[in-house]
Specification:
Length: 110
């Protein structure tokens, strides 16, 4: 490929990117000034949480436990711990290269 052809191609890409940037700016201005933007933002905003109510006393139901059994139950792990699985295994589960959205950008792994 000659240097003239590569210079023309670079100039074409530069003009294309400038035009694309102008179109994006115009689209953003149109979206930001539309009357529906506020309604859309309000519809997507989750409602506020109610004020917390403080408990005046703790109530424990009679389960037939003595104090030692109840203390042991309330201070043991309730299934929140995982097996000793290495972090690399969890990271491998994501498999971002196997996503159909990655096909145009990355090589696919099957």
């Amino acid at each position: 490929m000659s240097t003239v052809t590569s210079a023309i191609r670079r100039l074409w890409w530069r003009r294309f990117l400038v035009l694309l940037a102008i179109i994006v700016v115009i689209a953003l201005i149109a979206v930001m000034t539309s009357s529906q933007l506020g309604a859309t933002i309000e519809a997507l905003t989750p409602p506020g949480l109610p004020e917390p109510v403080s408990a005046s006393e703790q109530v424990s139901l009679d389960q037939g436990w003595n104090a030692e059994d109840a203390d042991r139950f309330h201070h043991k792990a309730q299934g929140t711990q995982t097996l000793p699985i290495p972090l690399s295994w969890f990271l491998a589960l994501e498999a971002p290269l196997n996503s159909p959205f990655a096909i145009p950008f990355f090589r696919t792994v099957f």
